[in-house]
Specification:
2 copies of one chain form a homodimer. The first copy, chain A, is mostly helical. Chain A has 9 helices and no strands. The structure holds a DNA duplex.
Chain lengths: ~210, ~210
Amino acid sequence: MGTAPGPVMPVAPGRATIPGTRRPRDAERTRAQLLAVATGRFARNGYATTTVRDIADDAGVNVALISRYFTSKEGLFEACLAEAVTEVRRDSDDTPLDRIAAALAHKIAGPDREDRLPERFLLLLRSSGDQHAEDMRLGVLRTISERMASAAAGHDDGSALLRAQIVLSAALGIILMRGSLGLQPLAGATEQDLAAPLADLVNALCAKDRTS
Amino acid sequence: MGTAPGPVMPVAPGRATIPGTRRPRDAERTRAQLLAVATGRFARNGYATTTVRDIADDAGVNVALISRYFTSKEGLFEACLAEAVTEVRRDSDDTPLDRIAAALAHKIAGPDREDRLPERFLLLLRSSGDQHAEDMRLGVLRTISERMASAAAGHDDGSALLRAQIVLSAALGIILMRGSLGLQPLAGATEQDLAAPLADLVNALCAKDRTS
DNA sequence: CGCATAAGTCAGCGGGTGTTTACTAGTAGT
DNA sequence: ACTACTAGTAAACACCCGCTGACTTATGCG
């Protein structure tokens, strides 16, 4: 469905490498490339839609290498998810409340991100049906929301965690809208554009002193 | 043709129909049932994951009826989406600003919803890859956010629409978290639990008079 | 060099998917 | 009661997917 260039395909399959030059034998490198390509495709198009042939072609390697390095498509997905989880976890270490909004804006729309963090957040919303993967993404979402709740620390009633999860939902919803839907003007908003609204949002939901 | 005289009657492969009784001949009814089941499955598990046989079995009818009534799986998806779009559009008619939050809370977590609105919102986030469907969901999201922006009508700078879209993103993010992820305590929050936080959220993002 | 081993390729297999075609069986009109 | 028509069924087809086992080629080491 998605990719047009399916048929025809002469004997040399869709290799990204130049036909004359051979792919250098670097297992580590191709493994990493497979992971990167797969993360992008899984995050953007979902698990079931993405085929292993798409990934392999995009990475310029043979399909069999996926099974070799990650045992299966699900294994590859779990590897992507694991990487995303560690990356996301590290990035959400200990942010004080008054900087959460700015940090969110930066993560969502920061210019020229090399860590591809929005992609990784998006991946947390994708499901492969596998239980282990399910546990991982639920775990990291729980961790993040708990950290945010403790950073906020307002609301002596039990609603702090709930409110933090709402903020998290908002952030992920925004990423989804930008990355998968392309709803303008949200999709084209810069980090500066998002800073003020997000500050209002975080403040209203997590600040100690509220009106209502 | 002396082929296998006994139809044997494999007694209702699905489960919706009682083995003994035959499905009554009601095209309208089965069509509606297919649509309802498909909407639920598409919204919950996504387009690619859901198989037409799952849908048919769940509705208690034969698979071929999907092609008959909706020409194809994509046609069925578009029909579900169209229904969801009209339902969502009607439900977001003209809500004054001060009631948006309550309305959202009711739509997200209202008790015993017969219109299955959360499901329909969730469907708006699912993609089949078809361009026509893509246009539909983008259109309805645009409409809703514009209505919300005009209801708010604050922010003489051009950020009203952006802020409305952030509110919408938050709502959809929450629905996604509840319906697809099951993140507690958000997933189990009642309408009352959500009312106050959502009021804060809407107020902070859309109210005319803000501090910062 | 010669060879063992790892990196990468190729072609094909089961299995599941969406769709179609031929068929059965209720139902309404005359 | 006969017939035309439509709702519903069953089985198969063609295709694409994930995966595998045998093969080829480059690199490291004596």
